[in-house]
Amino acid sequence: MSAQNEKVALFIDGANIYTTAKSLGLDIDYKRLLREFQSGGQLLRAFYYTAVFEDQESVSVRPLIDWLEYNGYTVVTKTAKEFVDHSGRRKVKGKMDIELAVDAMEIAPHIDRMVLFSGDGDFRSLVQAMQRRGVRVVVVSSMSTQPPMVAQELRRQADEFIDIKALQNKISRDPAQRPPRDRGASQSLQRTSGSPIEAGEHEFDED
After folding, report:
1. What is the mean pLDDT of residues 7-27?
2. Which of 7, 25, 162, 165 has the lowest CB atom count within 10 Å?
3. 62-93 burial, b for 16+ CB within 10 Å, e for fewer?
4. In this structure, are residues 9 and 46 in contact, taking their beta carbons and an 8 Å threshold?
5. 3-195 maps to which CATH number?
């Protein structure tokens, strides 16, 4: 089967790919990204996963979610949970691994290729499960940062690895064309990126 005839689905781990792009100084234009993968096969679905905070949803991340949904993405969200660990540190739980994995397994019988935008090693088992179902898995992340943003076990398990830096000319936004909405969206994504929300006070739980 030629690549043009392959049925494709994109799975974008929003927080993970935001952190990767930020590390590279890459401002992703999600409309260009969609067009890039539409040109390489029959794109059935493009999923985007992000956790949201109730106190910021309406003022910052909501415009991003609305824009993505209007421009061809299926956005999957859940409310991030704040808690205090045994040492008294405030942490946030907002990973979307389960939601992404469930959607991938459900669509597996209908696609030939899965493109996973994430470097999270926890997805290795999902990649294996998709491959057992005959789906070719492409992982998009980066080896160009120090340390690399992609886990070695995930990169090796994938059928193909694409460094997002190699896509820069095809999916990046012209700074002069950056819309005002991105400022608020970026602030919200920073809160869900896996970095401390406020240094010394909050941090994400990776479990």
Report:
1. 94
2. 25
3. bbbbebbeeeebebbbeebeeeeeeeeeebbe
4. yes
5. 3.40.50.1010
